[in-house]
């Protein structure tokens, strides 16, 4: 059963195998009432009939993508997507066919990995499989045994956060779901004591558990995410990396959406008020789950730059409304309302990549390098002030 740490055990009921269509009653259609239903991963979704229609269109696209991926497997073999991955060696050799295949895979992934394919495609393309292969097979089980019964600041915070992680979910919000999520988070906190545990990781790990077929695979996806995909120090005690990402995002907003940026400056609105949660939770608390996972499809293949693309897209999609705002609260309401109802991933990703324009990983890395000293100086100054206040109180 899903949630145990034994390899090869399946989830209790397979959210991913059924791509269903939602049909609101004729009374709902006429009255345009709010309707509730479960999405592919068991989350309760609340929206109007227009939202349901969008989701039905998205589901049909998922079916079409599934047929494309199955056809590719039939013609090229079970692991065809591995052969299209362009390594530095292939780039150096300038093998046109391999590079062309990689471009095709990139386009396919941006269109969405079918849910049934996600676990194995993520696990291989992200580097999680390679990371797992470097340790003994019993590594995860051994860590579970070694950490059992141990109490740390991290385990205390994890226990506090478990019931607050997607409450009401039919599996995550059960004793079995809590136990599974706890094991993943606790084991990782011992694997990397420098990171330990940071609020936000509970939502990321929970969604990984719903996608991956085993608890152990979810653990390795979390490991590759924190150790290879995201910027360093995003989840450390002082969130240094996250603060740097926020500053880079603010600069990018000024370049890509100058009117919005200038208006928000006039309102004295700090973009980190909304973007911090986006970057720490990787949109898992903000976007509908299926839209979040489309973002993660790209994240695990192209890297963390997609987070900037998507964050900018959310602002860009609301440009007209944001320019009319007069209060900080109005800005927050517009952005939250939009993210919670972004049921069409294609609409979001089209803006993110086509309208926002190109942003290379190198450009973002240069931005981080430029802004990190400034951020570190501010954090040091803040710490000095806190220590000074404590001394005065004593």
TrEMBL record:
Source taxon at top rank: Eukaryota
Pfam family, one: RabGAP-TBC
Molecular function as annotated in GO: GTPase activator activity; small GTPase binding
PROSITE patterns, sorted: TBC_RABGAP
Domain (Rab-GAP TBC) ranges: 112-303
SUPFAM superfamilies assigned: Ypt/Rab-GAP domain of gyp1p
Name listed for the protein in its UniProt record: Rab-GAP TBC domain-containing protein
